[in-house]
Amino acid sequence: MEEQSNSKEKKGFLFYFHIFFVLAILGIIIAVVIKFKNWGISVDLNEIRAQGEGEYSDTLDTILPLVTGHKGKKKKNDRLNIVFFGNSAFSDDRDTDSCIVNMVGKKLDANVYNASISQSFLSTVESEFKPQDNPYDCYSPYWMVWRTISDDNDFFYFEAADELKERDVVIPEAEDVLELITTIDMNAMDICVIMYDASDYLYARPPYEVDHETDIHTFFGAMNATLDLLQENYPNLRIIVSSPTYAYWYDGTSSDLMYYIAPLSTYAIWESTAAMDHGVSFIDNIYGVFNEDTADEYLKDNLHLNQKGKELITERIVEAITYYDK
Q1: Taking the domain 87-325, which CATH number applies?
Q2: CA 153, CA 135: separation in Å to the nearest integer?
Q3: In the structure, what pLDDT confidence band is assigned to residue 13 with cuts at 50, 70 and 90?
Q4: What angle do CA 208, 214, 217 make, to 5 degrees?
Q5: Dihedral (C-alpha) 161, 163, 165, 167: value to the nearest 10 degrees?
Q6: How far apart, in whole angstroms, are the C-alpha atoms of residue 58 and residue 60?
């Protein structure tokens, strides 16, 4: 009798287990059917936009105050002293009111010092200074900042200038800029703004080398090395790095991005990484403002800024400088 009772209980348990199992399977099947029936139902964007367009703010902008701690606190002056290192963005129309450097100075009532060279690059061809082989290298920010620190290699700059003359290369502002960096008191500067356009990318300069983070012949390495020099020698200087703007190729019939070694965005990302590693401000001009949809509005030849583009960059630099004044 006891064996029969256990057998009935076992059968009852198996019966209810199978019932539960079948119901579970049916539940899964029903859920899958409902999912597939509702898959791909369109969303009325007008209903969403009725609540407002929203805002896309996925940028690499990082605006930071001066990080002190090397040699004391930054002194407050009656007028800001701002030095600019860069190429065409800052050099174009340098003696006019339409120059970005001059517009920033006017908006902030600041003293501005334009150390930009129109035909220069952020990176160098060589990792060492070889003026007769690659005279352009002396106009990179690393070697120009180095010149503000020491005059030991003065003859290199003269050799580079002579070499460019022999090649019939004329850079009108080069002599004035070299004189500026040999006489400027960098310790009196409050802010340094660095901005190089997409020239490094267009000339296929390497964006980075992972194992050589301060190799100045790469875009990332040159930025790192330049920031190292500035922070080690001018600890009370607030530094703002502004990324390249969008650039594209046009053959008369169609336009497209130039992908040489890497996309232009790679250069901007590595530059933002260098800024982040050094605790300095970074203005993102690619993800933030200039892209394929707005390039024609702000660029006059697919690379250089038109007046509207200059005004926008000016606004972004002024905003970064005054961010903590609010």
Answers
A1: 3.40.50.1110
A2: 14
A3: low
A4: 60
A5: -140
A6: 7
- Residue 292 dihedral angles phi and psi, to the nearest 5°: -65, -25
Encoded tokens for 35: 């999912």
Q: How many residues does the chain have?
A: 326
- Burial group, residue 25, by CB count within 10 angstroms (0-12, 13-18, 19+): exposed
DSSP for 127-147? SS--TTT-GGGGGSHHHHHHH
Q: Could you say which DSSP state residue 75 is in?
A: P
CA pair distance 76, 214, nearest whole angstrom: 32
Q: Do 247 and 292 touch, CB atoms closer than 8 A? A: no
List pLDDT tens digits, range 197-213: 999 998 889 999 888 89
Burial of 211 (0-12, 13-18, 19+ CB in 10 A): exposed
Give domain limits for the chain: 87-325
Residue 277: burial class (beta carbons within 10 Å; 0-12, 13-18, 19+): middle
Average pLDDT over residues 46-73: 59
What is 133-201 written as a DSSP string? Answer: T-GGGGGSHHHHHHHHH--TTHHHHHHHHHHHHHTT---TTHHHHHHHHHH--GGG-SEEEEE--THHH
Alpha-carbon Rg for the chain, nearest whole angstrom, is: 29
Give the DSSP per-residue string, 283-318.
E-STTTT-STTTHHHHBSSSSSB-HHHHHHHHHHHH
Q: What is the DSSP string of 15-60?
A: HHHHHHHHHHHHHHHHHHHHHHHHTT----HHHHHTT---------
Instruction: DSSP for 200-228, please give it.
Output: HHHTT-----TT-TT-TTSHHHHHHHHHH
Question: Which 3 state secondary structure label does DSSP give 104?
Answer: helix
| Residue 306 predicted with pLDDT over 80 | yes
